[in-house]
Hints:
This protein has helices at 2-18, 28-48, 60-76, 82-85, 87-99, 102-126, 133-182, 193-210, 224-231, 233-250, 274-289, 316-332, and strands spanning 214-221, 256-261, 264-270, 303-309, 338-340. By secondary structure, it is α+β, with helices and mostly antiparallel strands. The chain has a five-stranded mixed beta sheet, with helices on both faces. Helix 12 links the parallel strand 4 (303-309) and strand 5 (338-340). The two termini are 67 Å apart. The structure holds guanosine-5'-triphosphate.
Amino acid sequence: MAIYSYCLLWFGTFVGVELTAFDPATPHITIFTLLFCVNVVFYILLRTGLSERFKDPSLTVLQMITGILAVTAVLYYSRELRGAMLSIYLMIMTFGVISLDRRQLLRMAIFIQSCFSLLLIGEGMLVPQQVIFSYQLGHWFILALVLGSFVYVGGYIHNLQSRVREQREHLREAHDRLAAIAIRDDLTGLYNRRYFMGRLEEEMSLASRSGSSLHLAIIDLDHFKQVNDTYGHPAGDEVIRRFSAIASIGLRRSDILARYGGEEFVVLFPHVSTIACVSALDRLREEFAAQKYPFADELRNTFSAGIVQYQHNETVQDFSRRADQALYQAKANGRNCVVKG
Ligand SMILES: Nc1nc2c(ncn2[C@@H]2O[C@H](COP(=O)(O)OP(=O)(O)OP(=O)(O)O)[C@@H](O)[C@H]2O)c(=O)[nH]1
């Protein structure tokens, strides 16, 4: 938009000079070369990120001030076209609507009016014979009135934009919160089954492509029904939460742990050897078995787990069925153990 405005200003000035509506001595090449250089500096500051060190990183105010000074210089030579050329001040004001509030827009309008006033005073002193006082007064008042309404409407648009931006930000936050909730299990905060199944497919296709190893473990808390029956449902919930906390801390960040449902959990181990997976599960098992609970001193819990390595190109169903079979074997072996299928 800045480039468009400058082109328009230069074109207007150029045509004005050619049609002798502007003073033929208008130094438009000098003015626009200067403008070009200043804008190159702005461009470099913005592109290199150096502008971030400024209070106003978009350099809106500086760019507007440059534009206003350029327009004022051109207006000095504008003669009959002055009335039309005054509207370019307003084009510059439109830049500010997005990032300046009403007070800043007012300051910018006062700056424009002051520049124009100085121009008129300068003309009165330097070339009094060319001055038609009624024209000057008319231009001055019209500019003041238009700038006033611009500040009012511009401020209103700015407030509207700020509100829309705020609402969009709230919506984005709400969306992010919902997205985070949608993949988590309420009780434990672990990933839920739906999310896990998505990740399972992703990791399987990654392992297929890269040929890397992938293990799936299914963990089931032993005799969990008894915990509920003996100590109550809230106690059962606490045991589930305790296991989740231990597993979250004990496993690596790259391992994907989820609550599969009830007292059943799943872990995906990408890029880990079978021995390392089994020993990680055994460590967890020992730590879980050593847990004490405030509501029942004598309560000790264990889990059984089945673990299998992904065989390239097998289906999700086959992969999980093999893990299930290994878990079944662990239960059959007397529970509190890890079986590799
Ligand atoms: N407290 C609590 N209990 C749950 C939750 N989800 C499932 N359960 C209970 O977990 C118990 C699982 O029982 P079973 O499937 O018989 O398994 P188990 O008693 O652990 O027996 P084995 O797996 O053979 O050792 C059921 O009583 C469910 O009601 C939960 O979120 N909180």
